[in-house]
Amino acid sequence: MTDNPPLPLLAEYASCKVCVIRLEDLCYQRAWWFRPFREVFAAGIRVFSLAYRVRPEAYAARSPMCYKCMRFRKNAIKLRSPLFNYFDGYLNPVFNRVRDSLLTAEELAWARTLAQRAADRSFVEP
Predict the structure, then answer these.
(1) Domains in the chain, number
(2) Which of 4, 43, 56, 104 is most buried, judging by how many CB atoms fall within 10 Å of its CB?
(3) Nearest residue to 70 via CA among 99, 101, 38
(4) Residue 23 within a domain
């Protein structure tokens, strides 16, 4: 554990290439086991964010739909923890392969487009 002060409000720490919130919602509908599978990974992010005193409320959401996204915590931890980066390097590709196996190419393209559009802070998903 470190005594790093919380990071300031920085929207760039939530830069996204794909909207995982929307993809995970689709996966939850398709596979009953995906939610507990994802929660194991999310619990790891929560533990590291506690250890490194990352406060999600300290980060500005890119748009209202981004509120409570784990991306804020994950990016903040990646800046502070070599151990987290080590685990993430191995576990994140596994998670992505499992998630993406439940989705179509069109859904993945839609999520990438959605993430780009959400960069506009006034964007609200219809």
Answers:
(1) 1
(2) 56
(3) 38
(4) yes
Provide the token pair at 68: 């409570």
Residue 43 lies in a domain: yes
The pTM score is 0.77
Number of other residues whose CB lies within 10 A of the CB of residue 114: 19
In a domain, 22, yes or no: yes
Of the candidates 56, 40, 52, the residue with the CA atom closest to the CA atom of residue 92: 40
**Contact in structure between 23 and 99 (CB atoms under 8 Å):** yes
Sign of CA dihedral 67, 68, 71, 76: positive
CA 43 → CA 37, 46, 51, 95, 113, distances in Å? 10, 5, 12, 13, 28
Q: What is the pLDDT along the chain (126 residues), one digit of tens a residue?
A: 445 544 444 444 456 788 888 899 999 999 999 999 999 999 999 999 999 988 777 776 666 667 778 887 888 899 899 999 999 999 999 999 999 999 999 999 999 888 887 766 666 665
User: What token pair was written down for 33?
Assistant: 């086991």
Q: Is residue 41 part of a domain?
A: yes
Rounded-to-integer distance, Cα 91 and Cα 8, Å:
28
